[in-house]
Amino acid sequence: MPDTDWQNWLALWLFAPLFVAMAWTDFTQLRIPNTYCIVGLILFVAAAPFLAWNELLLRLLIAGACFVICFGLFAINWLGGGDAKMLPIVFLAVPSTQIPNYLFLFAAAMAVGLVGMALFRRLARDTSPRFKSTAQSREFPMGIAIGSAGLVLIAISVAELTG
Prior knowledge:
Helix content: over 70%
Shape: globular
Radius of gyration: 16 Å
Number of strands: 0
Strand content: under 5%
Distance between the termini: 12 Å
């Protein structure tokens, strides 16, 4: 499944702690801080010199298209501001050949997350004020899906490249 060139995966591997932090913050606070976006851009810039020019330009094009789509979804209130800013940055880190795989993992994480949150909200008698996402609301912490899809793709790439 993954490419054999580690250079294509470097940015995504560097994003691993960011994925964990993003998922946790979105679960507990229903927000993705702007600092995470800045850190993501710094990580991408640090990994960019290792990429081939065509891969770099393709990632920038994909992230730009993602930004336009996310901005439109944010404008009609279907997507939160943090999600709309973070998704294009994540697409900078994902190898262009792996975009379909990331999108599949993201959709699966969204489906599992939506069902899981609905069940939790339905069955929980007492929701903790520490975890805003568990409150009875229509909001879904998409940072969990963004981060978990990235972590699964990282795990698959490491397994493929080492085994």
